[in-house]
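Subject: for your reference before the review

Hello V.,

The reviewers asked for a structural picture of the protein, and I figured it would be easier to keep everything in one thread rather than splitting it across files. Below is the amino acid sequence we used in the manuscript, unchanged from the supplementary table.
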Amino acid sequence: LRLYRDPEAARREIPVLAMLAASEQELEARAARLAGAIGSARVVRAVARVGGGALPLLELEGPAVTLDSHRESAEIATALRGAEPPVIARVHDGQLLLDPRTLADDELDAVAAAARAALGR
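And here is what came back from the structure prediction:
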């Protein structure tokens, strides 16, 4: 609770606050890096919900990474959940979406490797 007395420290130290406070530029850069590392992916605009707790209906618009594949998005999502480490993606309007807001910079390479494997590349 002491962290909340210093909002800057709280945003640095509490992961969910850092995710919520990420700038559009940070998210765009992270999404572009992830899409480039996957190869068969592109950056799109998407709306995500924060979910549960005090903000169950809060929607956040921003970049997301969608995978380009002839396979069903649900099939790729299942493969990603079985990856090591597991990767949780969401499917919206038939597109599998990876949200850079929920990924730290040091997680991008592992997520990209899991996505390439799920795509069979």
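For the response letter, the relevant points are probably these. The chain has a mean pLDDT of 91. DSSP finds five helices and four strands in the chain.

Happy to draft the paragraph if you're swamped.

O.
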